[in-house]
Amino acid sequence: MKRKFKISRIFLITAMVALLLTMALACEKTMPTDDHTVTSVDLKRYVGKWYEIASLPAPFQEGCFCTTAEYSLEKDHVKVVNRCRRGSPQGEVDEALGKAWPVEGSNNSRLKVSFFWPFKGDYWIIGLDQDYQWAMVGHPQKKYLWILSRSPNMPTELYQSLVSKAKSMGYDVARLKLMNQACYR
Question: Where is a lipid covalently linked (N-palmitoyl cysteine) (predicted)?
């Protein structure tokens, strides 16, 4: 009798946890978000190497220096190669390989990115230079933000204007961290 009660209790707890997780995921997907993505992105112009100028701290980037992202067009997706040096600008190179797909109807301004199947993340292009020399990449719930440039340095005035734009979109810019790009100087 005790064993049957124990199994029923474990089943009930497991079912409640599963229900709570399902409800939490459903809430996140239906939470209202502001559509701050750019009108359209020409992926042929967007591909290439980007240097991270600043970002909101993300656990997967902890201890990174000299972070870059390199994109290339493949037959059915965009190949993503993120690199950084761990621990210092002279540290060991760490590389993450991923794939990205444009979200239908977004004119390539929203992508889904996966570094580990079946998990995908949102990659929203929320700011883009007309000459594709800088970009701001965000997230619908404002969890992540990256300020990217085609060169490892960005003029202070431009950086400040992008930070102001991100703040006006609701990003917590007080948490922005500048990326040390000393290995490119």
Answer: 27
Tell me how far CA of residue 67 lies from CA of 62, 70, 121, 158, 179, in angstroms: 11, 10, 19, 19, 7
**Buried-exposed string 76-106: b where 16+ CB fall within 10 A, e elsewhere:** ebbebebebbeeeeeeeebeeebbbebbeeb
Each residue's pLDDT, cut to its tens digit, for the chain (185 residues) gives: 555 444 444 433 333 333 333 333 333 333 334 568 999 999 999 999 999 999 998 888 889 999 999 999 999 899 999 999 999 999 999 999 999 999 999 999 999 999 988 889 999 999 999 999 999 999 999 999 999 999 999 999 999 999 999 999 999 999 999 999 988 86
Q: Which domains does the chain have, with CATH numbers?
A: 43-184 (2.40.128.20)
The rounded distance, in Å, linking the Cα atoms of 32 and 30 is: 6
| Gap between the Cα atoms of 140 and 103, Å rounded | 13
The string over 119-143, giving b where at least 16 C-beta atoms fall within 10 Å of a residue's C-beta and e elsewhere, is ebebbbbbbbeeebebbbbbbbebe
